[in-house]
Amino acid sequence: MDNTLSNKETAVNSNVITSFGKTFYYFESFQTLKIEGLEKYDAIIIDAKDLEFAKIIIKKIRSHSDPEFYLKPVYLINNKASQDPYIKQLSDGIIVSFDQLSEIINDINLINSRIARIEISPSSSFEIQVIKKTLNYLFTRDVNKLIPLTEVNSSIGYCYPVISVNFDVFEEIKALELLEWAEKENLIWPDFQDRVYLCSNCKGGHLSFREICPKCDSANIISEDLIHHFPCGYIGPISDFRNKVDTALSCSKCSKSLRHIGVDYDKPSVINHCQNCNQVFQDYLVKAKCFQCKTDTDVQFLVSKNINVYKLTKKGRNAAIGGIYTSDYALNNEIEGTINFKTFSVMMHYEQERMKSNPALTSNLFVIYFDNIFDLYRIIKKSKERSLLTEIVTIIRNDISTADFICINNPSVLSICLNDIPIENAKLTAATIIEKIQLLVKNNFDRFDLHSAFEISSLSKEQTFDKQIQTIIKELTEKQ
Ligand SMILES: [Zn+2]
Ligand SMILES: [Zn+2]
Ligand SMILES: [Zn+2]
Fold first, then answer.
1. How far is the CA of 339 from the centre of ligand 2 (A)?
2. pLDDT (tens digit, 9 = 90+) per residue, 48-107?
3. Using an 8 Å Cβ cutoff, are 178 and 131 in contact?
4. d(CA 247, ligand 2 centre) in Å
5. Is the CB of residue 380 less than 8 Å from the CB of residue 422?
6. What pLDDT sits at residue 147?
7. Quick one: which ligand is closest to 198's CA?
8. Residues near 350 by beta carbon (within 8 Å), at least 6 away in sequence
């Protein structure tokens, strides 16, 4: 590297730069990749002359499982890199020369002070670890959004660099599924951006769409306009009306020349002719062949996935410093007297239908959010979490009718459907239930003050249930 550094504060020794009391490790593009030992430096500078090299190094750092590596401040020293949004999302900035090191010292201090605040404890599964890493990274960089990028190497065509870096490109769907899980846990909120269609077999997104023959599945078909000649009534493909000399059309049945479309003839539709099996048909099928596993699927059976911009919720922001708390990645901890969200959603849909057919019927949606229940889960034994939730469900059951139903959305959100009572009564019931739950926790867990927020609303007849509950939970978890 060149040693023409004007700044007296900066000293260079091989690839180690000391500046304003900080040590930087400088990666040059022709250097062999070795990231071991990097934890002792305050920040890393990558020469991004060779973008591919810079990408490999930054991926290696950000995909590491140790926070000493993956949270390390990383700067690029080549402004060409700013053109690449992938690298941009994974780096902390760009400098044009080493003289600018003084300008990033504050930045590094800020990142380090935030790193000191995050909770670091082993996660119960790889999936939770990846989400926790992502939340840690966003928190230490004061970033609130996960923005998808189109990525030609990704198996689904999109990637979220901060989370995707933990997966191979052909496993990109796993990043998407993880985000869906985090959304369900209310750690992030989705804003729709795009939709992708994926292979139903391998969830790959590199598909070839073809119009095919309904008889033999061949894509070797040709389409022609169909012509209806009014004077003689003949209907046939346009090729029957053509001649070899000019573009004039004449009828093969009555030999008359065709004059004006709409006057003496018409083009009622299109006809397809299979070159493979000779079948003539009007409607072709559309199939999508997967380049990854070669499965050929009817487009109606493709898997569609939303590509969202994800925003951190308050719960998500807190999870970086407080830890992610969840019973299980699969959340297969059904408590007696409750139903899972999928069933709940279906039943609420039936409630809506029931209300539509009989206006006298009412249904109320009661959603509870326990803001600090994770603090409680952390101090009690793992075996007691389930019994606590069971106790809470028992309390709720005592105050509602047997026909009402309860759903544990996730360990901090519960939804209850209260049928056929006026909303004022439902509000009273809700207040009583909350009071009893808080008392239960206070008496059994060392005077622990459980913070809860709740919302009672009439079940909407216009909005879909999923939309309604999503709005309620968003308001509850973002409040305070
Ligand atoms: Zn055919
Ligand atoms: Zn004719
Ligand atoms: Zn496939």
1. 69
2. 888 888 899 999 999 998 899 999 999 999 867 567 889 999 999 999 888 889 899 999
3. yes
4. 17
5. no
6. 96
7. 3
8. none
The environment of the single-atom ion ligand 2, i.e. residues with CB closer than 5 A, is 229, 232, 234, 251, 253-254
The amino acid occupying position 434 is I
Instruction: Give the number of whichever ligand sits closest to the CA of residue 302.
Output: 3
What is the token pair recorded at 101? 């090191």
Distance of CA 253 to the CA centre of its chain: 60
**Parallel/antiparallel/unpaired status of strands 43-46 and 22-27:** parallel
So where are the chain's domains?
10-115, 124-213+287-324, 215-283, 326-478
Structure tokens of 355?
């209300």
Spatial separation of the C-alpha atoms in residues 162 and 109, rounded to whole Å: 21
Q: Which ligand is nearest to the CA of 257?
A: 2
Cα–Cα distance for residue pair 335/327, rounded to 1 Å:
12
Residue with tokens 């909120």: 189
Tell me which CATH code domain 10-115 carries: 3.40.50
What tokens does 188 get?
A: 């992030």
Q: In whole angstroms, what is the distance from residue 185 CA to residue 150 CA?
A: 26
Question: What does pTM read for this prediction?
Answer: 0.72
Of the ligands numbered here, which is closest to the C-alpha atom of 285? Answer: 1
Residue 358: Cβ within 10 Å count = 7
Ligand closest to the CA atom of residue 240: 2
- Name the CATH topology of 326-478: Alpha-Beta Plaits (3.30.70)
Q: Which residues of the chain have pLDDT under 50?
A: 1-6, 328-332, 480
- The tally of CA atoms less than 13 A away on the side-chain side of residue 477 is 29
Give the Cα separation of 425 and 439 in Å (integer): 21
pLDDT at res. 3? 45
Distance 202 CA to ligand 3 centre (A): 4
CB 437 within 8 A of CB 371: no
pLDDT for 331 equals 44
